[in-house]
Amino acid sequence: MQWESERLLYRHIERKDLEALFRIYGDPTTHQFNPRGPYPDIDHAREVLLRRLKDRAIHGFDDWVIFEKRQPETVIGFGGVFVSEFNGRRTNNLGYRFAPDAWGKGFATELAVRALRFGFEELSLSEIVGVVRENHTASRRVLEKAGLTFLQRVSDPQDPPAHLMFNITRQQWRSKNGLHHPSA
Fold it and tell me: How far is CA 17 from CA 21, 52, 67, in A?
């Protein structure tokens, strides 16, 4: 399956995406707000890729591989809605990671808006959350532009700095997008 937005194309992750996954998640620059740091090696990336494939088989969805329409052969990121465990509860999490040369172009907001539409229209999820580091103001702005609002501050002494959890319900999303009738 493939999805699109104004400038981007999205598809499910596949085994052939291993090198791109490691290129992006193994880059220290993409982890400046993640104290756990970049993927240490290609074997770790392979484990993550296999877990994502398994998660998609279990839940029916996982985040996407992202390409620019004008360069559909080059992976520029990974993101979308995926199931995660956070703060003691299962969440439908909106997340993303882009290669540094794709930063500052509005791609994260474009992805976030498209991923919410996918989650609420195609998957009929009741709520989607976004979790960002407290000091990551750019990602906070992305979530807010996409319509999520602050829900709670979450501190974990083992994993500082604090996280901020934002959320939006299907009903809130429908209201913000002028879709008031329940069957619309």
Answer: 6, 12, 12
Taking each helix axis from N to C end, the angle separating 18-25 and 42-59, rounded to the nearest 10 degrees, works out to 110
Residue type (1 letter), 21: L
- Assess whether the previous peptide bond of 161 is cis (omega < 30° from 0): yes
Neighbours of 95 (CB within 10 A): 20
- HSE, side-chain direction, 13 A CA sphere, residue 11: 14
In tens digits, the chain (184 residues) has pLDDT values of: 799 999 999 999 999 999 999 999 999 999 888 767 899 999 999 999 999 999 999 999 999 999 999 999 999 999 999 999 876 789 999 999 999 999 999 999 999 999 999 999 999 999 999 999 888 999 999 999 999 999 999 877 667 777 899 999 999 999 998 876 555 4
> Are the C-beta atoms of residues 123 and 64 closer than 8 Å to each other?
no
